Automatic annotation (TrEMBL):
The keyword Coiled coil does not apply. Gene3D superfamilies: Immunoglobulins. This is SpaA isopeptide-forming pilin-related protein. The keyword Endoplasmic reticulum does not apply. Coiled coil: none annotated. Residues 1-20 form the signal peptide. Pfam families: SpaA, SpaA_3. Residues 338-359 are annotated as: Disordered. Keywords: Membrane, Secreted, Signal, Transmembrane, Transmembrane helix. One of its GO terms (biological process) is carbohydrate metabolic process. InterPro entries: Ig-like_fold, SpaA_PFL_dom_1, SpaA_pre-album. Belongs to the serine-aspartate repeat-containing protein (SDr) family. Residues 322-437, 442-531, 548-642, 703-744, 761-856 form the SpaA-like prealbumin fold domain.
Length: 912
């Protein structure tokens, strides 16, 4: 008997596989149910309504017309998972249903029954979800064709073209004619059966074959054939060829040849990822498993699905497909040809074709291929018949055949690309390799370096053609990063090679300069014929580092430049070591520092590009250090960055005055100035009395007598004490507290005006009788003031003999007879001399000098001054004058003496 493998077509509808795991990872996980054959676990499925187009669901039909849903997971059918859905209602005497097809997203199903008639008639059956009934819609003989009368028993497959608005049912079977095996294609259209044509699947006769029929979403037809001995073929028919068919031989595309497992297949179908699902019978049971559509490798376990007479498979899934065509825009040489190819699993070629002739436009095509998702496929072309692909520009573009949506491709090499279908949606991809002869071109190369020939990253360029109307070429540095799509062919940093430049003259312009450098000047170059083989080498194009000047001025609060400051100059971006800048106040200035010899004015030269901070490290003597930090940036070569004035407030000053009691200034004092918080050493401050402040070399900077000024006093607490008073004045030991606050910067703190009282000394002496040491009253003295001094004068001091000192109205304040005390004497040298001796005593004219000083205010003559008695004249004993004459004379003299004494005392009182 003749062996027939009854396999029907699949309707290909784009349905996402929910939760699918890519089959490239290996076999799907399997399980063992009830001790049976391993398979995927069943899931809940709808029992009524439209047929399921979910995930890996597909359907099997038995010879009696029973249609069952078979669930699968990543190509692995569920063990005994077949669930009866409906049954075609047979109208003939026998049931030989086959050619199962599903259309309209599961709302319609088709099949034919070869057992409806003893004659050569076939019954066409249609099931509708709306009614839930599967009934015969037509019974007819098959039309004759160029290969003679058909044999109904050869019918094995059926399918619905999803791109056909009418949803017409295609079916057919294999015949052996004219040294070949053909698939005779029919369709039920307009209430009749029409012969579409013949598709050759083998170039020899074979009565072993059986197969199936499927459509892509865009209407390409695939005839599936196998011989039951491990050989299988997928024969594609483009939708254009199918639409143009009129009953003759229909052109087909490249045939995919697979090596499959053993088994007499009676059903073939694709799932949505492109796996080919196979059904065969063994020991009265139907087994299903999936294979790789590229090479036939088994992808899943062989699972008993729970039916025993399966005759065909069908699904709602449409596999992704690929069609590649070659568009020749022109040829560099008329004899140039091109070979296009597609490689699938492991780089295995799926097909290839070479152009011929001299024509342009579409000159070769390969496919249509079914694809396995998400496998990567390689599309490439190679030169043929002496062509050189470097003479051509090659591009690849892929679009969806139904929607014209552009599909992504990845360029691997100039003429090699990869294409992957992934995601939920499947596409019927049409990819076009386009060749266009390149204009006569050459290349140019250069390096970007600094002046030390070190490579500089970060530059970008423009190549500007001299010829009018040609576009400017933008060039960025190719550093080897993935995804670079610019013109630079050299992956080394800062090295450039640009090819495909038409012959001619150009200007190379640096459009983006590496940060911190001066742009290079334009460079003119020419691309000549020799540069097609070797680039025009422009060599190193150097950038000079940006360097500028930085200036600032250190000033007082009034804007006057101020010398003596020190600064910290720190690079912040890029970071670097800080530099200490000291004010240069006279030429020549030390290299690397301040180059302006003017005190207080700063200039740094050759400062590299970048940002910096400037901060005062040490203020000039007598000034408060600025806490301000200046930020600056050098960006332009040769430019000056003027920071401006940096003002220092002077340290506080402290002033005070030394005055007489009447408030007039008094020079000559010395002071002790001592820090108490923070503590520090004491300093002696002597009054500077000079013609000008410049002459004051000590701490006191005020040249006026009695005026004091301390400069550069730091904030803190101090004590001020007079350590030496002016001559002739009393020392003031009072300790004065002085507070100097930080807010006093630039100000003068007035410590006060401090008075000195004149110094008051005294002198004491005594007068005694030389004979007995008894005190003598009545002497008068002359006290001469400081010799040569401005206040020198003679003071007459008469002995005061009173009951108490308060009664002494003259200079002598000691009321005791013969004892003297004169007070309120200024400091200096004095002389004391007796002016009148006590009555009856001889005058002593001896000078008694003494000196009063600050450390010797009271002078006491230790030894009393003595007077000797005067001699009395002796009276004659006889003769001469009588004694009364002498007594009268003595009385007169005494009266005169008393009068004279009274007059002198009165005069002295008037002088006082």
């Amino acid at each position: 008997m003749r062996w027939l493998l009854t396999i029907s077509a699949l309707t290909l509808v784009l349905v996402p596989v929910v939760g699918a795991v890519p089959a490239e990872a290996g076999f799907a996980a399997s399980a063992v149910a009830g001790g049976g054959i391993a398979g995927a676990q069943p899931v809940g499925r709808p029992q009524a309504g439209s047929l399921s187009c979910t995930g890996g669901d597909y359907y099997t039909v038995e010879s009696d017309g029973t249609v069952s849903l078979v669930p699968s997971n990543n190509g692995t059918p569920v063990y005994h998972g077949a669930e009866k859905v409906f049954r075609f209602k047979r109208e003939g005497k026998k049931s030989k249903f086959n050619g199962l097809a599903i259309g309209s997203n599961g709302t319609v199903a088709w099949a034919f029954n070869k057992g409806d008639s003893k004659e050569e008639e076939v019954g066409i059956y249609r099931w509708e979800a709306e009614t839930g009934e599967g009934e015969r819609v037509f019974l007819s003989e098959l039309p004759d064709g160029q290969f003679g009368s058909p044999d109904i028993s050869s019918l094995v497959a059926g399918g619905v073209n999803p791109s056909d608005p009418a949803g017409e049912y295609y079916f057919g079977g294999f015949v052996q004619k004219k040294r070949g095996t053909y698939f005779t294609t029919y369709k039920y259209s307009g209430g009749r059966i029409v012969l579409v044509g013949y598709v050759q699947v083998l170039d020899h006769d074979s009565d072993k074959g059986n197969g199936d029929l499927v459509f892509s979403a865009s209407g390409d037809m695939f005839v599936l054939w196998n011989d039951g001995e491990g050989d299988a073929r997928i024969v594609p028919v483009r939708r254009e060829a199918l639409a143009a068919a009129t009953g003759g031989v229909i052109p087909h595309g490249d045939i995919s040849k697979l090596k499959t497992g053993e088994g007499r297949y009676n059903g073939l179908a694709f799932d949505s990822d492109g796996r080919l699902i196979i059904q065969y019978d063994k020991s009265g049971k139907s087994y299903n498993y999936s294979i790789d559509p590229d090479d036939g490798t088994t992808l899943s376990d062989k699972v008993s699905i729970g039916v025993g007479d399966g005759s065909d498979l069908a699904s709602c899934a449409a596999p992704p497909t690929l069609y590649v065509q070659k568009d020749v825009v022109g040829r560099e040489k008329p004899s140039d040809q091109f070979t296009i190819s597609v490689e699938g699993k492991g780089g295995t070629p799926r097909s290839s074709e070479t152009t011929s002739g001299t024509g342009t436009g579409i000159q070769a095509a390969i496919g249509v291929f079914t694809l396995f998702k998400p496998r990567t496929y390689t599309i490439k072309e190679t030169a043929a018949n002496g062509a050189n692909l470097s003479d051509y520009s090659t591009t690849l573009s892929c679009v969806d055949a139904a929607t014209d949506e552009e599909l992504p491709v990845t360029r691997v090499k100039d003429t090699e690309y990869t294409f992957v279908q992934s995601g939920a949606d499947n596409h019927d991809a049409i990819c076009t390799l386009r060749n266009e002869p390149r204009p006569k071109t050459g290349s140019v190369s250069w390096r970007k370096t600094d002046t030390g020939r070190k490579a500089l990253p970060g530059s970008a360029w423009q190549i500007i053609p001299d010829a009018a109307g040609q576009p400017t070429i933008e060039v960025t540095d190719n550093t080897g990063d993935a995804g670079y799509s610019g013109r630079d062919k050299d992956t080394a940093v800062a090295a450039f090679t640009v090819s495909d430049l038409p012959l001619g003259s150009y200007t190379l312009r640096e459009s983006t300069v590496p940060e911190g450098y001066v742009g290079a000047p334009d460079k003119h170059f020419t691309i000549a014929k020799q540069h097609s083989a070797s680039p025009n080498k422009l060599g190193d194009i150097q950038n000079k580092p940006i360097k500028g000047k930085v200036t600032w001025v250190k000033t007082k609060a009034d804007g006057t430049p101020l010398d003596g400051s020190t600064w910290t100059f720190t690079p912040t971006n890029p970071s670097g070591n800080a530099r200490t800048i000291t004010d240069c106040t006279s030429a020549p200035c030390a290299a690397g520092g301040d180059q302006n010899p003017t005190p207080g004015r700063f200039e740094l030269r050759d400062v590299p590009y970048g940002t910096y901070s400037l901060q005062e490290l040490k203020a000039p003597d007598g000034y408060v250090k600025s806490e301000e930090t200046k930020a600056l940036k050098v960006t332009t070569d040769g430019a000056t960055v003027a920071v401006g004035e940096m003002v220092n407030q002077a340290l506080p000053q402290v002033s005070w005055t030394k005055t007489k009691p009447d408030g007039s200034l008094l020079g000559g004092s010395t002071w002790t100035w001592k820090p108490s918080a923070p503590a520090g050493p004491a300093e002696e401050i002597a009054d500077c009395v000079k013609p000008s402040a410049e002459k004051c070399t000590g701490p006191d900077k005020d040249p006026a007598a009695g005026k004091f000024l301390l400069k550069g006093v730091k904030a803190g607490s101090y004590t001020l004490v007079e350590s030496h008073q002016p001559e002739g004045y009393q020392l003031d030991p009072t300790e004065h507290k002085v507070e100097v606050k930080p807010t006093d910067a630039g100000k003068t703190v007035n410590a006060g005006a401090f008075k000195n009282q004149p110094a008051a000394g005294s002198v004491t002496w005594s007068k005694v009788d030389a004979g007995n040491g008894q005190a003598l009253a009545g002497s008068v003295w002359t006290l001469s003031g400081p010799a040569g001094g401005a206040g020198a004068r003679d003071l007459v001091v008469a002995d005061c003999v009173e009951k108490d000192a308060a009664s002494c109205s003259g200079p002598d304040k000691d009321p005791a007879a013969g004892r003297f005390k004169v007070e309120g004497l200024g400091l200096g040298k004095y002389s004391l001399v007796e002016k009148a001796a006590p009555s009856g005593f001889r005058l002593d004219t001896t000078q008694h000098p003494f000196q009063l000083a600050a450390d010797h205010l009271d002078h006491a003559f230790a030894e009393p001054f003595v007077n000797k008695r005067a001699s009395v004249p002796r009276l004659p004993l006889t003769g001469g004058r009588g004694a009364h004459i002498f007594l009268i004379a003595g009385a007169v003299v005494s009266a005169v003496a008393i009068s004279t004494g009274l007059l002198r005392r009165r005069r002295h009182r008037n002088l006082d």
